[in-house]
């Protein structure tokens, strides 16, 4: 049985094991510094850093933000040796069942990169569609460049510009400066 176990303590044993997956799975410009991550795990109530556990085995991580009117799915990674075993699918099925309403996520543009194209198609098969192609992800680092990405979501929203601004403010700008 697949479980998402929320981590709220920066000394959590799962977190210690997941840090390397986090750093290996996301390039520097698409992840926050580990100390900032640990601070948010303890202090940001809307952030849910989850260990993905299947039949008692730690399989990966899934981070989302609950903004009450929508969810922002920030990071999702499965350990390489466990990929292609439908664990990610189980997580997305859980999300569809338990996070009702609008869910937004960022992806690399599916233009000429085979992995990015496959990732976008994976999310499409799971009910997501590209909602915004002109999105610039703010940097997780004060000195790094912003990153052009696409926004995908499970449904359209007239409030998408406001939701994107809230993500930028609360996930990036406010939490980087603290």
UniProtKB/TrEMBL annotation:
GO MF: acyltransferase activity, transferring groups other than amino-acyl groups
One Gene Ontology cellular component: ribosome
Stretches that traverse the bilayer: none
Keywords, comma-separated and alphabetical: Ribonucleoprotein, Ribosomal protein
PROSITE patterns xref list: GNAT (PS51186)
UniProt keyword Ribonucleoprotein present: yes
Domain N-acetyltransferase as annotated: residue spans: 5-154
SUPFAM superfamilies assigned to the protein according to its UniProt record, in alphabetical order: Acyl-CoA N-acyltransferases (Nat)
Pfam families given in the database record: Acetyltransf_1
Protein's UniProt name: Ribosomal protein S18 acetylase RimI-like enzyme
Annotated organism of origin: Coprobacter fastidiosus NSB1 = JCM 33896
